[in-house]
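pasting input
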Amino acid sequence: MSDFDVIVVGSGMAGPVAAYEVAKAGRSVLVVERGESCGAKNVSGGRLYTHSLRAVFPDFATDAPLERRIVRERISLLAPDAGVTLDYADERLRDVGCASYSVLRARFDPWLAARAEAAGAEYINGIAVEALLRDGPRVTGVRAGDDEITADVVILSDGVNSLLADQAVGAIRPKPATVAVGIKQVIELPAPVITDRVLVASDTEGAAWLFVGDPTKGHVGGGFVYTNRDSISLGLVVTVADLARSETPIYQMLEDFKRHPVVAPLIAGGKVVEHAGHLVPEGGFDAMPPLAGDGVVLAGDVAMMCVNIGYTVRGMDFAIAAGMHAGRAVVAALAAGDTSAAGLAGYRQALESSFVLRDLRTLRRFPDFMEHTTRLFEKYPALARDAMRELFVVDGTPIKPVRKSLLPLVKQVGVLKLGKDLWRGVRAL
Amino acid sequence: MSKVGPVTVDMADYLGVNKYAVDEGNPHIELAVDPGREEFLKLVRVCPAALYKIDAAGNQTFDFAGCLECGTCRIAAGGTVVIEWHFPGPTMGVQYRYG
Ligand SMILES: Cc1cc2nc3c(=O)[nH]c(=O)nc-3n(C[C@H](O)[C@H](O)[C@H](O)COP(=O)(O)OP(=O)(O)OC[C@H]3O[C@@H](n4cnc5c(N)ncnc54)[C@H](O)[C@@H]3O)c2cc1C
Ligand code: SF4
C-alpha cells in the first residue's frame, strides 16, 4: 500500500494543475516543491495565453494575480543603430477566448498552488526531490531529504532543468542545441508611465514586444519586453550551443540591449529590482523524451513541451494543458488498476488530440530552421534598416527610383537566398 | 572563437538586488580541477549571472554564491568543466520575488 495515490514533483505550471485534477477526483496527492514558496525558483517572460487555464478554472480572472492584458503586439528588427518595427493592435486581442496576460511567476505560482490545495492536495515546500524510488523498471515514489515516500504514480513536472528525467524514463540531459538560456530583469516604473510609453489605453492593458537581430549580436535568439502593472520584464533568450561561440557574454548582450536607442526610452528612469536566469526548452517535438514509464508520467518543460517560434514563446499554456491531461489520465489509470506505461498511455493519446502535440508536431521543423537560417539574425535587420533609410532619410540628395535604391540591397543578400529563407520559414511554420 | 569581447557591466550591482540564502562553504556546483580554457570560456559566455570569470592574471574563477540555479552551465559543460550540479540544500539559494 503506497503512502499516496499520486506524488507530483514540482509546482510550477503543470504540477499544480495535475494535482488539482487528481485531488478533485478524490485521490490522495502530495506535491513536493523545492522553492520555499511556489514560484520562488521560477522565471518566464512572460505572457500567459489563458485558453488552457480557462479550461481548468473558468473563473480564473476573478482572483488570479495577472499583471496586464496584452492588447498590443510589436516585433522589431534591430540593427545596432536602428530599428524597424511592426506594430499590431486589434480589438480581437480583447476577446475572452484568445486573451493573454503578462504574469510574474513569484505571484502567479502561489495562486495556482492554492487552487490545488483547496481541492485537497497536500504540499511540502522548500525541499527538492533528490531521487526517484524504483522497483525494477517501475517508479514507486520519491526520496526527499531523509524521507522516502511512496505512490502508485509519480507525475514529474519539475521543469526544463530536471535532474530526475533520466531516472524516470532514461532521458539524459538536453543537448546545448535544444535549449536556450533566458536572462531577464524586472525594471520598476510607475504604472501610468508604462501605459503611456507603450501606447495603451489604461493601466490594466499592456504590450508584448519582441526583438530580433542586434539584441543577440546576430546569434540565434531574440529579446523580449512585457509590461507588468508597475514594472517591465525585459530579457533575452539565446540558444546555448550558439551562445557558447559568441564573443559577447549574455549578460553584456543584455546590457547593450537596454542601451539600444529603440529600447532605452522605454525603461528610462526605471529601477532594476531583479536579475534572473532560466533555461527554455527549444528542441521541440523531435527532442521530446518518452512521456510515460511504469508508474510515472512527464508533463511540461521536463518533456520539452514548449515552442519558441521567434515572435512568441509558449510553454506555460502547454504545461497547464499537459498537467490537466496528466492528472486526468492518471486518475483513469488508477481506476482501471493499471498504472504501468501501457496503462498510462491514455495521457499521450489525450495530448495527441489536444493542441499540445498537434502544435509541437506542426512546428517541428522550426528549431532547425532557426538554427540554420542565421541570416535572419545577422543580415536581415540591417537590410530592413537600409531599406527604410532609402524611403525616409531625406537630405536633399536627388532621390533614386525604388528599383535602383532597394534592389541593390536585396542583391547584397541574394534574391534567391531571400526567397529560399522565406520559403523555408513559411514551410517550417 | 577563443576570446571574449569587452565587458562594461558590473554584475555585482544587479545580483545585489536579488534575494539569496547562501549556503556558505557548501557549494552545489563542483568544477573539474583544471578545466581547459576553451570549455571554460563557454561558461563565461553562457552564465547569466557572470559567475565564471577570467581575471586580469588569466586565472579562471568561479563563485557559486550568486547562482540563479538555471542549469545552463550543466548543459553547456556538464561532464567536462561542471562535474557536479545539484540543487542547493533545503530553503537555500536564490529566491525570486518577481520571476
Ligand atoms: C526567459 C523565459 C521567457 C519565457 N517566456 C514565456 C512566455 O512569454 N510565455 C509562455 O507561455 N512561456 C514562456 N516561457 C516558458 C515557460 O516559463 C515554461 O514553459 C513553463 O514555466 C513550464 O512550466 P512547468 O510547470 O513545466 O515548469 P516550471 O514552471 O519550471 O516548474 C517546475 C517546478 O519544479 C520545481 N522543481 C524542479 N526540480 C525539483 C525537484 N527535484 N524537487 C522539487 N521541486 C522541483 C521547480 O522549483 C519549479 O517550481 C519562458 C521561459 C523563460 C525562461
Ligand atoms: S546554474 Fe546558471 S547561474 Fe548558476 S553558475 Fe550555472 S550558469 Fe551560472
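fyi The longest strand of chain B covers residues 82-85.
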